[in-house]
Amino acid sequence: MAEDRAPTDIPDVSQVEDAHPKYEPYSKGGNKDYTVLGKDYKVLKSGANYSETGIASWYGSKFHGHKTSNGETYDMYSMSAAHKHLPLPSYAKITNLDNQKQVIVRINDRGPFHGNRIVDLSYSAAHKLDMLKTGTARVKLEVIHFASPETELVNKLKASKVSQYFIQVLASSDKKKLERISSQLSHKYSIGHQITPHKALYRLQLGPIGQKGIADSILEKIKQDGYQQSFIITQDTKKPS
User: Fold this and answer.
1) What pTM was estimated for this model as a whole?
2) Do residues 96 and 138 touch, judged by C-beta distance below 8 A?
3) SS3 of 130, please?
4) Continuous segment of H or E residues that includes residue 36
5) Minimal CA–CA distance to 85: which of 127, 41, 20, 126?
6) 3-class state of residue 40 by DSSP
7) What is the DSSP letter of 173?
8) Crossing angle of the two packed helices 175-189 and 212-224, in degrees rounded to 10
């Protein structure tokens, strides 16, 4: 904040809303590793699960109206911030550890590059954290991360799967023996079966069974029939559309 200053005609920024977190693709500008004052800085590929505690500072009129690192215009009255490593833009909750006041900011710039400070806040953000007079404050920074639409789609596809259960009764190299046993057990418990090859053996599995509780119940009965080595295996399948 050297040679920086608050605005000459100080407006009322107490009603400025926090930044509204949402998914934004990382910008093409400002997200490459860079060097400042002879020191190299690496930019994180993602801000997911990122948090840190340290000293925050703020910047005001000296940079107001100038370009931020991702090509936007710095507005000291917005709820924004600068960070050395987080991808741009990112959203973060900032907590003043001395008074527990909190703000949510949109990180769209690089810095601070003085001392051990971890984040540079806009004038409005610093005002809401009550740190204008001190210039710095001890803060906790917690990134608010949103997955990309592509990642959300993958997660939805995973969630659209259902589990089916099989009871593996035994494995043997004697396929005919397994066929006899599978026929008996399938008839006794009114359940399907499959015999699958595995290396030099065949595995006898009863199922599929749609509910874990039913599978557990049948498993106990099969063990009582003398197949103590039996156990349940799970297979995921897509939900019917």
Assistant:
1) 0.65
2) yes
3) coil
4) strand 34-36
5) 41
6) strand
7) S
8) 120
